Records
---
Amino acid sequence: MSPTPSSPAPLLYRHRHLLGIEGLTRPEIGSLLDLSESYIEPIRSKTKSALLVGRTVINLFFENSTRTRTSFELAAKRLGADVINMQVQASSIKKGETLLDTAMTLNAMHPDVLVVRHPDSGAVNLLSQKVDGAVINAGDGSHEHPTQALLDAVTIRRRRGRLEGQLVAICGDVLHSRVARSNIHLLTTMGARVRVIAPPTLLPAAIERLGVEAFTDMRKGLKDCDIVMMLRLQSERMHGSHVPSTREYFHFFGLDYGKLDAAKPDALIMHPGPMNRGVEIDSEVADDIDRSAIREQVEMGVAVRMACLDVLTRPLRSNAEA
Ligand code: ASP
């Protein structure tokens, strides 16, 4: 093991938890992005650090996840932490235990960081008020998914050099998407221009109040965009039918080369995954190695999660050293 290179940039993030992007300042976000970038090289060279040796990270997932849970696990292990994964199906919730009972039980085991995903908006915030360790929101209902927005921002910054001035289209099921909400907060705070494009049934009321422009037509909304971010239809969060059929949805809102023509010729294609090919995105477009940044997003996810674990455990580590 080699010691972790500490971040060259001054760290401006001063919160105990990471519950959302809303309310974070531009310098706070900027310093998280800088720190995340400093972890890319150690990931690529498979350097393991001893930064979190003796620390415990619990991944508490009340909802399915592939990318997010795996990348938090890998990030924690790369930093030397002990990691415990708790899956919803196996948890006591099935036996009627409440979220807070589960939190208190886990708290008694003194985890340093709890990474929590929950289907209810606000549940992770509630839990953070009851536990002693730091809490990272790994997605709460349709509210926020802060590490996804951070990894998207690192990806855009690396490809385009900056976030400021980029014209970003977020397309699809904006209504139910925590990815859209976190990205809107992050991108507008960092000076990007954001458009959302969705059928009227999947556009939140008064979304313009968040500082975005809303469109219900893909070609109009995509016109001259630098970045095209696609979203999955969140059927698990839909009550009733929001789209007539997935076939019709693809026809009007699925990203194919025809619609992509309206964006800038070098527009970058992004998707948080999991993708539904042929529903919100055409397979060929998703796999276009010149245009798609989808795999890079996954790689940046590990770097961002290492940075978040590093940042939130700094107060503990400095107490231990004192
Ligand atoms: N993985 C992302 C999330 O957890 C996006 C999605 O599920 O569509 O919100």
Note: The CA atoms of residues 176 and 239 lie 11 Å apart.
---
Amino acid sequence: MTKKIAIIGAGITGSVIARCAADIGINVDIFEKRNHLAGNCYDIEEFNSFTHKYGPHLFHTGNKKVVDFIKRFSQFIPYIHKVHAFVDGQFIPIPYNLKSLEFTHPSYLAKRISQKLIDEFGFGNQVSIYKLLDSADLDIKNLGDFVYKKIFFGYSSKQWGVKDPLSINKNVLDRVPVRINRNTNYFLDQYQFLPKNGYTNMLKNIINSEKINIKVGYNLKLPIDKLSSTNTQIEINGKKYDHLFYTGKVDELFSYCKGKLEYRSLNFVEDEFCFSSKRPSLALNYPENFDFTRIVDYSFIGIALGRNVDKSRIVTEYPGRYDENNPNFNEAFYPLFTKEAQEKYKLYEKLANSLSNTLTVCGRLGKYKYFDMDDAIGAALNLVSKNHIFN
Ligand code: UDP
């Protein structure tokens, strides 16, 4: 008999799983509670460019398997992401590098520190801010204090809602290293590009199959209480499925029985302005002084597409604590990386694992992980290669 699966969520993870299932003849029903496809990658075409409605999504990866998969569903344009931070009245390139050092320090000092950085870490390498803070050399340690204070402290305090960003998981700040060269590209991955017709179009193509049914704007109440480790099927809305792939919030799935998990959210405030070549990059970070973290100018995508752009969609990002009752912060974007939150997540993970014959919890929210797009695609492909339903 033809297998049938249900998927909750039409973001990257849900869509990739749906496509892999459809490719081998499995019938798929996707239920998406938002009124659009593509999850957090959702974008719209405006002002001759694409606006990413849930924050900038710039594809980058070193994973060839992921690239081979998505190349089936879109054409791509090269796009090298650049970021600047507003520090002491000027925009400096981020990740902080030897060029940024020349902006922030007098030249005699910049020269001396550059040489010390090269001697200690080797030219061309990139190091964690924690390494600079730990250095025995006073100049390097002072630079570490400066970069931490000017780039990381304010931004991370706002983004994560903490007084001491050094208390959060080290992997978070390590996403943005310090470079011992003058390379101002935000990412160093081998593959960096954007879908020519936008992410929503790409995700639409991924799930475009007669084997896949999708319902958007459909907030499904899951019969989680009826799941047991001995079931071989799960019944949803009177229909039986051989497996359920759930990509939503894992605490919500289990009715918060182990307590609520914390997430960080963002409020996106949109403006439109005339295009200005004075804005140096798509993303401008504001670590200090303001209550927002980032201003994003989406006209850079239109420019990369070779289009004429005379207006810009400018979006200012204000971080806040996720709260389903607060309309400004009712989308969960980032899991919180405190030890306590991770421990609570482990309890839900254990629960989910005990039901693995009919349930797989996956994706950024399901796994409570800081997945980039390529991580989400890679994890979904990996999951499909191992899950019994695909064999
Ligand atoms: N970060 C920072 N200052 C910056 C850029 C990043 O403190 O100018 C820290 C901050 O904690 C942020 C993390 O590094 O959450 C990861 O940055 P990334 O650009 O990867 O964030 P994303 O684009 O995923 O929100």
Note: Residues 157 and 163 are 6 Å apart (CA to CA).
---
Amino acid sequence: MKTKCLFPVAGYGTRFLPATKAMPKEMLPILNKPLIQYGVEEAAAAGLTDICFVTGRTKRAIEDHFDISFELEASIGGTKKEEFLSGIRSLINSCTFSYTRQLQMLGLGHAILTGKKIIGEEVFGVVLADDLCFGQTGDGVMTQMMQVYEKFQCSVVAVEEVADSEVSKFGIVSGEEIEDGIIRLDTMIEKPPLAEAPSRLGIIGRYVLTPDIFDILEYLEPGRNGEIQITDALMQQASEGRVLGYRFKGQRFDCGSVEGFVKATNYCFASS
Ligand code: G1P
């Protein structure tokens, strides 16, 4: 069974200070729903209903969000306002939630490795909630990626073309397109300077990982910016032909930046 999805949520959210001084960036709302809820809904829709948060100090509001608020239930239960809780209630009822703390911020690879005990020996999804994704066809991006995994049985990363000016902000990949939109990756470089980028295909914050990734992460040296990089661990799998890049069908907003956040808000408002 593939039911687990890991959410690294320990990051500080410095680009949203002072809003994120005492509040997790993942709780910033797009319209009336926090970013993290969009990510959890996407995972649950893909059948990944065991939600594992790799969390940190100042992130307790996330735990409270995915729990019952007795005071709220008591005060608005039975009134018309109750309907505002129906979405989060049914999400809570259809998922389990586990939490483990990343004690030091040593990179995305380190955050994922922190989830090893909760994930165990299973294939699992990873969602970076900052990357807000909407599927084009009704299927969310994680659902699309699990379909690719089912067919090829190896790690899958979501990719899309990025602008030259953005290349140094992403993991950049290249390889051979083996099917429409599916690329067998042979090169993966974390945040390269433009001149060293093997393509303009950037990794977006959605991954399906085979559990041997933990064995690789455990012995991985720090990479770009002195951090343990998931891109470097994946490159080891890619050197054996075991990573696919998937050009997802849909739209992605970088909600880690104020500009992307505003675009996502406008997009959601227009389609609400
Ligand atoms: C991380 C990954 C990077 C990926 C990006 C997607 O970087 O390390 O490879 O392209 O997420 O959002 P971060 O943005 O966390 O620095």
Note: The mean pLDDT is 95.
---
Amino acid sequence: MNILLIGSGGREHALAWSLADSPLTSRLVIAPGNPGMEAFGEMFPIAVDDLDGLCTLAGDMTADLVVIGPEVPLVAGLADRLARLDIAVFGPSAAAAMLEGSKAFARAFCARHNIPQPAFYPVSDYKSACKFIEQLGGYCVIKADGLAAGKGVVVADDAAAAKVAAKSMLSGQFGSAGKRLIIEERISGPEASLFALLDGENAILMATAQDHKRANDNDQGPNTGGMGAISPSPRLDKALEDQVMAEIVDPVVHGMAAENTPYHGVLYVGLMLTEKGPQVIEFNCRFGDPEAQAILPRLRTDIVSAMMATTTASLHHFDMRWDQRSAVTVVMANKGYPGNYEKGDVIRNLEVAERTDDCYVFHAGTARDNNGDLIAVGGRVLAVTALGDDTASARKNAYEVVNEIAWDTGFYRSDIGKV
Ligand code: AMP
Ligand code: GLY
């Protein structure tokens, strides 16, 4: 099959590695890709928001399947446009991607379908925001409605902090994404993520994972896109997985079908395990980054067949098999991330991963300089994944490789997967 993969992060590097491994893949094209993916396919420098360019590329290469990694093109309707060209797509339509694209939509959808979640109040003016902040006693969460690259959430301890956040979002801190806000009840408990595949009518469990969102050890410092991940999540046992499938994922697939916006692709369910049971923190309409880098090295089922099954309502015949070992992924980021950072520092000794069994280095913010050396150009630059018999041994294996990578301006958390 001719497969087009869209994206350029660590998640897409892990997807490229998986797709290239499938016996069904005869040609893999990646747009725009990164230097880590050079060995897996041909790369075309077309940006993920250039929908015209991507559709033309898919047509020119007679793609049999397009795999859309990031949320921006999904929310913008790339899957719809490719479907109109009769090209199979892994990823939901724009209407279904609203589960990530609008937090107000997702909350209202869950309310309509009795999916467990915190109390929430959509608002679009400061006075109403203040009213609900006071009503929740100031202990609440303020969220920009639209896509804000993971930054549009403020967890507040008191009314003053909540009001500052609401004012700043309504005044345009996140552009049009913050025109509407959700004021939410602040719930508590451990967090975990569950990934399911949906084919419009059926849903099957894919895998579980746990992200580490804060920049520094012991969950200190600012929120980031994710500084590491482990899979499976030690918080979700079989009984909890079944409960999340029955109370959250099945109502999503049936509810979306009933509302004529069937959901095809992967659904990422961000959960808080409260005393009252699992509740939805957020939905994403794509794999997590860096969760994909922890999950995909454990997958033992052919990924292309699984993706094709999401396009044809045939998932109920599908049996996903997994390596029973644990995976730990450590992100190496540029010093200063998620704020400002220097670009252009050379990274050496990545070959160490090639010499180590069951270890993978996925690239995100890398490029090649004029000498062909690998340099750091993004915030999150590398994701190092290792497998092990349990989380502790996977963690040991991952950090052994991380410590060997020579990069002066890089930093990483030293407590990924520590329990
Ligand atoms: P999100 O971008 O929606 O995943 O939110 C980022 C982080 O904010 C989550 O991982 C949680 O730690 C926290 N959070 C979001 N919503 C709530 C909530 N209603 N109660 C408590 N914490 C929350
Ligand atoms: N790691 C969180 C996300 O991909 O949204």
Note: Residues 79 and 210 are 28 Å apart (CA to CA).
